[in-house]
């Protein structure tokens, strides 16, 4: 299991934009399973939406991308590099994520050629799918 300090050694994201609390499973270059405890104190809830707080879908996608970045950047030859978004395909938002949820973020690298690859990403809460999609990344 990787905590915040170990995650920060792999990806460049920092508070308040680091959206992973810990990584439970890691197969370098292949897959990462991470978690985010969603609390009422997240800054984005002040405006999205004050009367009914919902985690923005784009931030769930970003959290999935960070999990994928942990997988791809944990390979020794990618140490110190950055994984950039190239595309988001077939994103589907199926369930709201609200304060109190424990978001499970899984990204499996399904294809890579040179610095470009694709990750199959799924975010779930209590076993129910919240977001799915394919994330294209470029290592820079």
Report on this model:
The protein is α+β, with helices and mostly antiparallel strands. The chain has one domain: Hotdog Thioesterase (Thiol Ester Dehydrase, Chain A), CATH 3.10.129. Helices cover 17% and strands 41% of the residues. A six-stranded antiparallel sheet has the order 1-2-4-5-6-3, covered by helices on one side. The two termini are 26 Å apart.
Quickly list its features.
140 residues, 6 strands, globular, Thiol Ester Dehydrase, Chain A
Quick description:
This protein is of the alpha+beta class and 140 residues long.
Q: What composes the largest sheet? A: 6 strands, antiparallel
Name given to the CATH homologous superfamily: Hotdog Thioesterase
CATH topology: Thiol Ester Dehydrase, Chain A
Counting helices, strands and paired strands, the structural category is alpha+beta
């Amino acid at each position: 299991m990787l905590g915040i300090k170990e995650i920060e050694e792999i990806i460049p994201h920092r508070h308040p934009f680091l959206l992973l609390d810990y990584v439970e499973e890691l197969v370098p270059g292949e897959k990462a399973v991470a978690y985010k405890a969603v609390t009422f104190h997240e800054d984005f809830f002040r405006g999205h939406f004050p009367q009914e707080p919902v985690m923005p879908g784009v931030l769930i996608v970003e959290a999935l991308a960070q999990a994928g970045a942990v997988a791809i950047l944990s390979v020794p030859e990618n140490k110190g590099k950055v994984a950039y978004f190239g595309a988001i395909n077939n994103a589907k938002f199926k369930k709201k994520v609200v304060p109190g949820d424990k978001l499970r973020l899984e990204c499996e690298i399904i294809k890579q050629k040179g610095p470009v690859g694709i990750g199959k990403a799924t975010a779930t809460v209590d076993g129910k799918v919240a977001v799915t999609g394919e994330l294209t990344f470029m290592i820079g």
